[in-house]
Amino acid sequence: MTPRAGLFPAIFLALVGCGDPQPPEGPYAPGPVPGAEIVDAMLVGHRLMDAGEYELAQKAYMRAAVTQGMTADILAGMGSANLGLGRLGTAERLLRKAIEKDQESPEIWNNLGVVLVEKREFFEAEQVFRRAYALDNGESDSIRDNLRLALAKSENSDYGEEQEQDYKLVRRGTGDYLIRKIP
Predict the structure, then answer these.
(1) How far apart are CA 88 and CA 116, in angstroms?
(2) pLDDT given for residue 27 in this prediction
(3) Interatomic CA distance for residues 125 and 113, integer angstroms
(4) How far apart are the first and last CA of the chain?
(5) Residue 42's CB: how many other CB atoms inside 10 A?
(6) 151: which residues sit within 8 A by CB, 6+ positions away?
(7) What pLDDT, in 10s, does the model give residues 22-32?
(8) How far apart are CA 92 and CA 80, in angstroms?
(9) What is the distance between the alpha carbons of residues 73 and 155, in angstroms, rounded to a whole number?
(10) Residue 176 in contact with residue 107, Cβ under 8 Å?
(11) What's the per-residue H, E or C state across the chain?
(12) What gap in Å lies between CA 51 and CA 128, rounded to an integer?
């Protein structure tokens, strides 16, 4: 046996003693740790949205729906995640359902307005932003800026050639979006 061939069994035997004393049970990831604190799935969804992980946020909101039901907050979170994924039709449908459950949330109205701007439905977006701004008592700069943009877009809407969009969505807070002009 060459010196190199004898080295492999020695390294292998040295590594066998490292790690957990008990091997994992089966090929799957370990389950929940007994006594560990459970993290709220809504909080996980909001954090994933902040990180730009919209698909994972969508799954977190679905997990929250299992325990909490389809509340307005969960519907709004799912709608916002779909907005981030570019699924405008689904986002609009979910945000409208959220508004049916909670008509007094300026954040939900604002996010619906953002969806409508993205769909180039400027006149309806203007009305939605007006409602959000009124519900917020004019305190949110982002809603005011979105309203101004919708007003400018509705005044300048034409049926000419489609132009390249020079705006992007910026997430602010837990479920609030702002439309910003790209410098």
Answers:
(1) 8
(2) 81
(3) 5
(4) 69
(5) 20
(6) 126
(7) 555 678 767 77
(8) 9
(9) 33
(10) yes
(11) CCHHHHHHHHHHHHHHCCCCCCCCCCCCCCCCCCCCCCCCHHHHHHHHHHCCCHHHHHHHHHHHHHHHCCCHHHHHHHHHHHHHCCCHHHHHHHHHHHHHHCCCCHHHHHHHHHHHHHCCCHHHHHHHHHHHHHHCCCCCHHHHHHHHHHHHHHHCCCCCCCCCCCEEEEEECCCEEEEEECC
(12) 27
Rounded Cα gap, residues 108 and 114, in angstroms: 10
Only one residue has tokens 């006594």, namely 35
- For the whole prediction, is pTM greater than 0.70? no
**Which pair of tokens denotes residue 139?**
């305190």
Cα gap 33→52, rounded to integer Å: 28
When pLDDT is cut at 50, 70 and 90, the band that residue 45 belongs to is very high
CA distance linking residue 70 with residue 63, whole number of Å? 11
- On average, the pLDDT of the chain sits at 81
Strand pairing class (176-181; 167-172)? antiparallel
Question: From CA 94, how far away is CA 55, in angstroms rounded?
Answer: 15
